[in-house]
Give the backbone structure.
Amino acid sequence: MSKVKYKRILLKLSGEVFGGKQKYGIDPEVLGIIAKEIKELKKYNVDIAIVAGGGNIFRGLSGMASGMDRATGDYMGMLATVINALALQDSLEREGVPSRVQTAIEMRSVAEPFIRRRAIRHMEKGRVVILAAGTGNPYFSTDTAAALRAAEIDADVILKATKVGGIYDKDPVRYPKAKMFKKLAYLDILNKKLKVMDSTAVSLCMDNNIPIIVFDLTKHGNITRAVLGKGVGTIVG
């Protein structure tokens, strides 16, 4: 069996991923594919934490654009991430992968509260930890939550799953000739204003020396290839 490059990972799944081709709601087929990919990765005894987004159900900034209070919209978005996390947990456990959902906003009847030491212990016991409700605070994105949790659990890398090959100089959907970067420094993202993660998340990763790999989730085996260090997507750091 190949040797892994990263022993403990934090996988960031955007809400758009949960929505599948429709980009809204929850696509059970996509969840099943993700669960199978994670089951395959568990064969390498990797510690896995996942941060779920919620944009497929509700996005706080969209609510603000229509006149909603920003903090209220962000709290609604956090609750949307919990729905995604529970759906992913169900798919994982149907594949025989034990998992736990931990939330930054306490809701003990459906999930555990986020406790750093407990999350690490779950991973040490082979469970996948799904982290929901962002940081528990408005005005912070789930990308920032991913960077924060990665630092807290001593993750070796953040794997940011997208629907494109990596980070490009332009939107590859709109510009077919857009150039994909293989490697970038943290400051490149900030200086070039590349829309891959918000500046707070990138700065947190930079301050804590956490590499970021942005890759295409839709290609089978890409999560495992990224963990094995096989040059998938764009690496930042």
